[in-house]
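USER:
I wish I could look at a protein chain and see how it folds. I am handing you a single protein, as its sequence and its fold in token form. As I understand it, each token names a local backbone shape. I hope you can help me see how the letters and the tokens relate. The protein I mean follows directly.
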Amino acid sequence: MKILVLHGSPKGDISVTMQYIKYLEVCFPEHEWNTVLVGSMIRSLEKEHDRFDAVMEDVVKADMIVWSFPVYHLLVPYQVKRFIELIGERGAAGAFNGKYAMALTTSIHFMDHTARNYIHAVCEDLGMQFGGTFSAEMNDLLKKRGQMAWCGFMKHLIDDVMKKRVLPKAFLPISKPSWNYIPVSPVSKTDPSGLKVSLIADLSSGGNVRGMADRLKACLGIEPIDISRIDIQNGCSGCCHCGFDNCCIYDGTDGFKEAFVKNVMEADVVIFLGTIHDRYLSSAFKKFFDRSFVFNHAPLYWGKQVAWLVSGPLTQIPNLRQIMEIYPGFSRGNLVGIVSDEGGSSQELDALIDSLAARCISLARDKIILPQDFLGFGGMKVFRDSIWGELRMVFPQDYRLYRRLKLFDFPQKKIFNRIVVPLASLMLKIPFIRKAFLKNSKRGMIMSHAAVVKKARSVQEQTAV
């Protein structure tokens, strides 16, 4: 059987993800393996149509396609995203139709499911039979159990391909109704004075994003920043050079870092505007977000208000919505809202944009940051544990920052949890104490909360007097 690996790491052959592939080549020598380093050669694939066509010829000849990549910013790396866009732009989707596919991701298990969902859905959009994703923690290959799981996964998938089994689909195809947004309502202006507001848009991405950006500009009196005009020479290379002092190998060669610091890190409100391409925003946005890794795992949106304006079928892509929710979520920022142009009514979209702008400014003035949900809370704990542990050596800048922000909030550091809780647990083994505890447990759970309510009521009554 002919197996084609489309390898997406920008580090090419010298990557952890690639070692997983090489391990399979050793375990399954009876099959013909061919690897194309699409991640490290993306610029040549863009410029040289002959090289791109040669990759498509390899796809046509293959019985199974393996997408392998590290997870970058909740998705495939920019380089893979751009490769997928090229498939659509050059009408090459037919080469993938009917092929079997699978994916290998490596990460620290932070939001790797959104990357898995994305590549799965893209494969189904290309007409492929998707056999699943092996979501590996970076060091799983170093463990016997990880090696057995990896080979076992591939063994059964190869059997599916050899026997031409039909595999179930997980995602509905996307319908893309097209309409032209032309503002028709009087602008409801909001004064952002005293606040730093950034409107970050990819104005070259098509759809209604330019009209939406113009409406937002009229609301707030702020000029959008077009990321397609920011000088970003390359995507993130994955070298981790930035881990020691937040200095990227591209610093001084392009304008990304200066633009990001000025328009994101120094802002009180950040509003992103983009058009959906396949099942994400444009690759220009992916490059922008990937390069922000120069600041490693820092909570970049801490205390900021974040909102999204999207042109395209967002309600059909819940995976993308979840990605947009997590950007401010794990960074202790506040998601104001996500607005799309799916309503198909200019009047409705006018009102949605005006309201979003007003909410952003109002929440920023009052410094309202809502509690983290599971995605933000759990995601930060993944980073916390990894940076306190094995990543400390590679990302000392993260470690210093997390200590300063007191993010190493391990439960064992809390005196109550270390002393009182174990003693109370022992006492609750005594039958009559347990019986009394259960009898009063409901009231006990609310005592502290009720005291807060009582205090607030007292203050309110005194104020009224």
